[in-house]
């Protein structure tokens, strides 16, 4: 049910297919000007938008900015969604592009290279501190990857997209995506080797 009280379609299809059908239905309603349908789309995908932005930018404040930008952008760009791919594939592409643009813009304005990932400090006990440090090291390893490797890594390893879905988001062939992902995995594993010893 959408926030305006309209019932979303439920036809007994598997949950993944049902979610895609509901998204298409909500997109159609939102494109027709129904604000409640748009708000429901945002509610369904806001956490995903933030998660992807955080993994690509490496900074919670930047990820929050990107999330806000995407939420605003979606209202005006839904007309550009033609439905040839799943809404989530299109949304991933919007979030990835906005995240990369945000990073480039921030670097140009500051004239600096990216810095360490900014995570809140983790309090004792020692195990929690070590877990926090390992998480920080992992995020830093991902943030150091070149864009061409970082995006496939985030989409496949963290978000769980298939190779075909990630290739559609990044607009490269599956073979190219697999190669970039393999290089990213090798780099991150090498960076994290000291944590697995």
Layout of helices and strands:
Elements: H1 15-31, H2 35-57, H3 60-77, H4 87-110, H5 126-144, H6 147-158, H7 163-170, H8 174-196
Molecular structure report:
This protein is mainly alpha-helical. The protein has 8 helices and no strands. The protein has helices at residues 15-31, 35-57, 60-77, 87-110, 126-144, 147-158, 163-170, 174-196. Helix 6 runs antiparallel to helix 7 (163-170). The relative contact order is 0.10.
In short:
The protein is 73% helix and 0% strand. By secondary structure, the chain is mainly α.
Helix content: over 70%
- What is the global morphology? globular
Counted by DSSP, the helix tally is 8
Q: What's the N-to-C terminus distance?
A: 49 Å
Q: Please write the string of helix (H) and strand (E) elements.
A: HHHHHHHH
**Average pLDDT figure:** 79
Give the helix/strand class: mainly alpha
% residues in beta strands: under 5%
What's the main sheet like?
Answer: none
Low-confidence stretches: 7-13, 114-127
Rg: 19 Å
Number of strands: 0
Keywords:
197 residues, globular
